[in-house]
Amino acid sequence: MRIGLFAEGYTDQLLIEAVMAAVLGPETEVNFVQPLAQGPDTNGSYAPGGWTVLFGALRRGEHKKALQFNDIVVIHVDSDVCRKKGFDVPKVADPEKQAEAVEDRLWSLLGEEFRRVHGHRVVFAVAVDEVECWLMPMIFPDQVREQGKTTGCLEAASKELLRQGKQSLQPASRKDPKAYQALARGLGGSENVMGWAAKNPSLGRFVETLKRRQWEVVAAPTMESPEATG
Length: 230
Description:
Blueprint: E1 2-6, H1 10-24, E2 29-34, H2 51-59, H3 62-66, E3 72-78, H4 95-110, H5 112-118, E4 122-127, H6 136-139, H7 144-147, H8 153-163, H9 177-185, H10 190-197, H11 201-219
Parallel strand pairs: 1-2, 1-3, 3-4
């Protein structure tokens, strides 16, 4: 299984890649599409990220190009700023409905024709409110209330990791990729991730769709080039 991964940023890619490896198996090939650069440049800077950059890549049709070289594409975005102009998704209390509303917005960027022909090769990784919320069951294994958090997760996770004598996810003004890499290495196997998915609706939605798409792609007789359908 070859997967083209679109995400808001590099640290998001690291975690989502680890989740997919746990669910689908370590032989899964994950290709970073957005951001394309893996790691910092010579000045220590990372490729531009955020939802506006992601939306721009989809408007340019980068997802169509990615499907020429991958079996499926996974598209991640956080819902924390979904009400901003240009994102244009209402904020709702139910995590499942919030993820669904953001997915509808992403489909509008991909196009109805693309969805009709290639929808079975797309997986949305909508994190409510942020991808760090998917880590809460891992970081707080004995605190049920914290495991279900869907807001303020980056700050809560960073504080708890420091308390445990580990690296903070955001020690200064930006996230620390090394801390995310450490968490990704400790993610464990499918049993762990499936257990956490049961406690976080948006993670559960992503995992279930990922597993379903895997079998749909395997069962498909051919993979039509997205360029042929515009």
